[in-house]
Amino acid sequence: MKTVFIDEPFKIEVRDTEKPVAGEGEALLEVLYCGICGADVASFTGNQPFTTYPRIPGHEFSARIVEIPENSRGLKAGDVITCNPYFNCGECYSCKRGFVNCCTDNQTMGVQRDGSFREYITMPIERIYEGKGLSAKELALVEPFTIGWHALHRVKIKPTDKVLVVGAGPIGLFATISAVAQGAEVYVADVLDGRLEKAVKFGAKGTINSSKVDIVGESMKITGGNGFDVCVEACGSSVTFLNCIDCAAFAANIILIGNGKKETTFLHSILLKKELNVFGSRNSLKKDFEEVIELISSGKVNVMDMVSAVYSVDDVADAFDALTHNDGSLSKVLIEVHAE
To answer: pLDDT per residue over 145-171, tens digit each?
Structure first.
């Protein structure tokens, strides 16, 4: 079967490997579509600290069940599904308390263990989620959607809340959809007009191009000088985290999704003065997958508007190159491994 390997930074190729055999409690899956995550691009460029090489990338995917034992979930051969790609140990303090997304020995497919960029994979049955009639492309978008969904459920958002999402990449856009789904009035900040146009398409009431206007001043205009009730950092930048602190109302909530790569220096007294609540968000849970699948199935959200391009698995190097040099025009890029 065809398998994609990142052998070292900037070296990616498709090689022939043996088809896997499912073990006890596992299903054999035919991979249909894979999404390229920012973590995959970081592995490709050598900026992912948790990746070792060679590595098969990929943790956003859809698949068709080829073989599966009889199970209580009603899953059967032929079903088109998606999966939870975060493998937790089950023994650490986080796992024992039910916070499996925060496992201290978490192994995410495509990062700490080999991922989905291959024609066939095996997965534990409990990690497989029924597709509910969604297309294979839609199901490949479920996992990145759950990241924003999980984050925006770290706090209880009220319909009266004004929410600012800083960063309109795929995760920021999914966070926008998640906040809109909870009834909030959502604004999105970014430096690229093309991304902000997508945010409006996904329900944002307004946008801020922070390369053209002062984000703090504009935030105060929007909120009548109060600041936002919830600020979501979806870039992983020191500057945007500080923007969130400055744009937040007193007693507001700040949610961090972006994975920062540099230290941030600030006077922490501002957190005390404004009595801010700062929440980290990592991965997602079973219920997040189920709720997102249900939301997409309802027809209330068209996630296909997130897809900018689809490449064949044979052209995977071109896809990674395009994202490495992305000028902001690309949101989510999918790799077609097998047609649905």
So the answer is: 999 999 999 999 999 999 999 999 999
